[in-house]
Amino acid sequence: MTSDQRIQPNTYYRVAVAAVNSIGEGKRSDKISVRTDKQYQAPSEPLNLEEVSQSGSTVNIQFDEPNQDGGADITHYKVYYSKLDERSGDYDEAEVLRTETTQVDLEQLLLQSTYRITVTASNSVGEGEHSEELEI
Length: 136
Prior knowledge:
By secondary structure, the chain is an all-beta fold. 0% of the residues lie in helices and 38% in strands. The chain contains no helices and nine strands. The chain has strands at residues 12-15, 32-35, 47-55, 58-64, 76-83, 95-99, 103-106, 115-122, 134-135. The strands form three sheets. A four-stranded antiparallel beta sheet has the order 6-5-8-9, with no helix packed on it.
C-alpha cells in the first residue's frame, strides 16, 4: 500500500491504477472519482460560563456552545468543579458531571465554600479545551 502525503481531507480526486512488475507498467484502469474523508478535531472551549442562580447548596450554571465543533456534532459536555481547601489554598480533586445541555445544577455543594468550575465539550474525536474558569 502506498500513501501520498499531498492528499487533502474532504477533497475530490480522480484515480486510476496500474500494476507494475519487473517488465514495466501495465494498462491503467479507468479513472474513478473519490473523495477523502473530512478531517475532524475536538471542539473548541465552551464560552460565557456563568452562574445563573444559587439556592442553598445548589448552584445553577450556564454556558454557550463552542465556536468550533471540530467538524462533528457535540455529543456531551463535562462540568469540572472543585472545592478550595481553605487551609492549604489548593483546590480538591475535581468532580466531573456529564451533561448534554448547556445549563446545569451543581448540587450538594458545601455552604460558605469556594468552588472553581470549568466546562469542556466533546465530539466523536474526543474532549476539547477547558472553558475559562468560573469561581463561585
